[in-house]
Please model this.
Amino acid sequence: LAGAVVAAAAGSFRTARTPSRRDQKRVAEAVRLIELNAERPLSLAELAGATATSPYHFLRIFRHVAGMTPYQFLLRTRLHRAAVRLRNSDATISTIAFDTGFNDLSSFNRRFRREMGEAPGAYRARRVG
Model:
């Protein structure tokens, strides 16, 4: 209680509302849409339209519910799919990058290293069996 009073007095009091069930459902719908279409470009407007919200409201609720932006979720989904393919197939790294929705190999390599902690080639080299 004392912390809330101090925060209110400092002018930084902000209530962290729990997202409504409706907003949680909208985010779940968007997550499904992203997972089903991760290999193709998805715009914020398309995702917002699919959940019957404005782009601004959609971005705000998605970030609040998922803890990241829709674009960050899309990138993470693509990278994790690429990681699975690197471990389970002999396709070239560039083929995997393009098939999972990346248009630029250097961007894929950089983002993969940032997310997985190592380059795609090193990640693949560690595959089991």
Remarks:
- The domain at 74-125 is CATH 1.10.10.60 (Arc Repressor Mutant, subunit A).
- The CA atoms of residues 28 and 49 lie 14 Å apart.
- The chain has eight helices and no strands.
